[in-house]
Specification:
The chain is globular, with a radius of gyration of 22 Å. The protein has two domains: 137 residues, Aspartate Aminotransferase, domain 1; 255 residues, Type I PLP-dependent aspartate aminotransferase-like (Major domain) (Aspartate Aminotransferase, domain 2, 3-Layer(aba) Sandwich). Helix 2 packs antiparallel against helix 10, helix 3 packs across helix 10 and helix 11 packs parallel to helix 14. The chain has a seven-stranded mixed β-sheet, sandwiched between helices. The longest helix has 21 residues. The protein is 39% helix and 17% strand. It has 14 helices and 17 strands. The chain binds 4'-deoxy-4'-aminopyridoxal-5'-phosphate. The site of 4'-deoxy-4'-aminopyridoxal-5'-phosphate (PMP) has 13 residues, from helix 4. It catalyses: (sulfur carrier)-H + L-cysteine = (sulfur carrier)-SH + L-alanine. It comes from Hyalangium minutum.
Amino acid sequence: MSGGGLDVAKVRADFPILSQEVRGRPLVYLDSAASAQKPQAVIDAISHFYTHDNANVHRGVHTLSERATAAFEAAREKVARFLHAKSDKEIVFVRGTTEAINLVVQTFGRKNIGPGDEVLITALEHHANIVPWQMLCEQVGAKLKQIPVDTRGDLVLDGLEELLTPRTRILAVTHVSNALGTVVPVKEIIRRAHARGVPVLVDGAQSVTHFSVDVVDLDCDFYAFSGHKLFGPMGIGVLYGKKEHLESMPPYQGGGDMILSVTLEKTLYNRVPYRFEAGTPDVAGAVGLGAAIDYLGQVGLDAIATHDRELLAYAEQALKAVPGVRILGQGRERSGVVSFIMEDIHPHDVGTILDREGVAVRTGHHCAQPLMQCFGVAATVRASMALYNTREDVDALVRGLHKVREVFA
Ligand code: PMP
């Protein structure tokens, strides 16, 4: 049961939800790219917070409020260390990747993007890294352009310098495609964009879960991820921004905590990152996310990366051997997910039959409709893997797919 130095049996025991049966079969959870399961340590941290420390943050002088504030800020420090950021002041707590990107669009974007300017994204993006930019472009009269993808699922970077024009104000790119698993060479893209003076936002929703990320080494301007995909709670996420950017950006939402002083005539805004955290934050969520980061540190990010790589290779081999299965996305480097279609069988039918076997996979367009259009399909079946998945899980998926074939024979 172990792979890459990871004791997967021990890891699985840390995730209580995995030990249940679904439809009379042991649960095989292959949908972590949509939302990952939570280790007991995360559940306990949230429960401990509400049981012992719950109070509002940054406001009270009483003991519980001080404790809650300390727990919240300790979580921010953990996130900063996790991303190798220079300072915890570069970490803004948000609801998730979606809100992080919307924040950048509506603050950095509104300030720096005007009529005739260009925003460059890629053909691999999740809707969360398309629609907010499209909305801004419509609002200000800017143009949305994209780096194309080839038939293997890799970005076509030959023409990047032509796409980076003097009007390009930002490049927004995913680190790992949620629909195909392609790992994008973001470091190289950032270097080439910076050479043209273009800042880069990286959508890290699918990367932080599989390998270590160093925002200083990448030199990205913004990095976004969601707690719930990182084995933490739903409703909490992170925007990393270089301090000089955050300090130059206007606030996102107005309200409590983001101000220094308010009169009817004028408000003085708080320093970063608090300027971007209006209202009561999800303190328990941040505490839970901090516990998830601690947990991953204990298991070992390198061991997780090796395990995930080995399991993905095993899954791809196993799926290729199933008659009628076509894998989409054979990019140079892949991580976490394998997307496929079955000849003449709708992905939703595949997913429904797999569920009867206790196997949970994702079916649909994976919030990446433009990418699906590039591949000429409306939907795929996506199996996504995490540190608690095993070869036995993949074998159960393959057995399920043979059942699907029998049903449709
Ligand atoms: N970007 C990518 C690459 C994703 O996979 C997802 C989640 N599927 C998102 C953004 C959006 O994340 P959230 O819904 O947690 O905001």
